[in-house]
Amino acid sequence: MKVLRRKEGPSLDVRLAALVEATELGAGRLPDEVVAAAREVAGRAGARRELSLEHTVVALAGATGSGKSSLYNALAGRQLADVGVTRPTTSTAQAALWDGDGAGPLLDWLEVPHRHPAGETGDLAGLVLLDLPDHDSIRLSHRLEVDRLVRQVDVLVWVVDPQKYADAALHERYLRPLAGHRDVTVVVLNQVDRLPPAAVDRCLDDLRRLLDGDGLTGVPVLAVSARTGQGLDGLRGLLAERVADRRSWSARLSADVTTAAGHLATDPQATDPQATGEPSATERKGMGKRPGGAERGLTEALCVAAGVPVIVEAVARGHRHRAVVATGWPVTRWLRRFRPDPLRRLRIEAGRGKDVVGRTSVPAASGAQRARVETAIRDVGEAAANGLPGPWAAAVRQAARSRAGELTDAVDRVVATTSAGATRRPRWWRAVNVLQWLVFGALLAGALWLGVLFAMDYLRLPQPPLPTAGEVPWPTVLLLGGAVTGVLIALASRLAAWLGGRRRARRTARALRTAIAQVGREMVLEPAEAELATYARFTEAVTVARG
């Protein structure tokens, strides 16, 4: 028969390290008091692990008149604490030690000045029993002493009496917050000798009901009488088991780490007090993913604000303008130079590369365009923060806006760098330019030839033989052919420039969109994703810390 073994969780050392990591990741994002409390737990746990592990510190805590000091004396077998009836007599904690060798540093850490050897050691060897001040004392120093030691001892024994076991202050301030410490909590109903047996049972049942409501289901509840000794053997036996186990300190630290990690994970904005910041499997599917729709919206908004449509139109017109200057008919192309170059007007030049300093002359974004960019940044933050607990969602949104002030200059630089490629001259322009000048040279040669012939005829000089192309003299062919050919080449070049301008404008638009999208990713999306990665590490650390 196959035996199924329960999988063990991470060790206490691993959980402590995870808690420390979670506090570091949560600092500045979660409430300061929550992070500080978790750090205190981690520090306290580390200190306790360095002290005596052979001793178990058990604290008797209770309200005024609960008989806690009487119970302390009865367990110790000696009159160590003064006993009062109506007023608190315990002002500082005192300790009874069963075989207390080596417990000095532990008590120093607990800041317990009064230490007494107990009676017979027996099976309680290693027990350090503390008698705490009353948690409802009229003196603030007494209550602060209780609060401090309640956070430090290994086992808590809450002593209540039949009159005040349902005290709201006890349950709301101490028992309910210790719901995660069931393994190191014991509740003792003292003074049962004052009640008939039936009333004792009713009190125990009612006390159990209250403890269940506090989340302390399964916590041992014992009925004792410090005056008569009723139930003391059962309490001694329970304490002997805890001392012999030598693991109460570990159980206490484990509960502290679990509780601290739970507080780190709790979403303060949740309406359910038990709700935590740990997402469910379904919620996790929608978290940590790149917000595609919002990213596209950001790119569109940045493109419009950066004047990409203006630049693209200028690229098409500028290409045609420069093509005419470079490939037009030499007789008329010089006129084009009097027209402004659309790209030069925007300060987009081939020499403006990655090291460009300054801005282009693209018109500044309007108020509506800037508002659209801000809305797009906010949408990216909201999409990235979807499903996160309040503090982390706020951190992600803030991260998305963290570099918004740098966007304008960064986009302008990348626009200048990317658009500079649109000013490069195609190689065919040079070839056509050479051809145009050759054709123009032929035209000039024909004109000069005809001029010479006209002059010779005017001077009635003898005419040299005149070659012809068919019936047309070659000077006429050169003159007319050069003019017609030059015009045709110019028209063909202009058509090619128009098509090339459209093609180059499309390429520039794609390149600008890609470059601007990269800027948006670097300055908006990546900071948000880095915060999401931090949250993922935080969640993993909290999960490990909670065991």
Structure description:
This protein has a seven-stranded mixed sheet, with helices on both faces. The radius of gyration is 45 Å and the shape is rod-shaped. The protein is 56% helix and 7% strand. By secondary structure, it is α/β, with parallel strands linked by helices. The N terminus is likely disordered. The chain contains 18 helices and nine strands. Helix 1 packs across helix 18 and helix 17 packs antiparallel against helix 18.
Topology:
Layout: H1 12-26, H2 32-49, E1 56-62, H3 68-76, E2 94-97, H4 104-110, E3 114-117, E4 127-131, H5 140-150, E5 155-160, H6 168-175, E6 185-189, H7 197-213, E7 221-223, H8 232-245, H9 248-265, H10 281-285, H11 292-305, H12 308-327, H13 342-345, H14 367-384, H15 390-401, H16 407-419, H17 427-458, E8 468-469, E9 472-473, H18 474-545
Parallel strand pairs: 1-4, 1-5, 2-3, 5-6, 6-7
Antiparallel strand pairs: 2-4, 8-9
Helix pairs in contact: 1-2, 1-9, 1-18, 2-9, 9-18, 11-14, 11-18, 12-18, 14-15, 14-18, 15-18, 16-18, 17-18
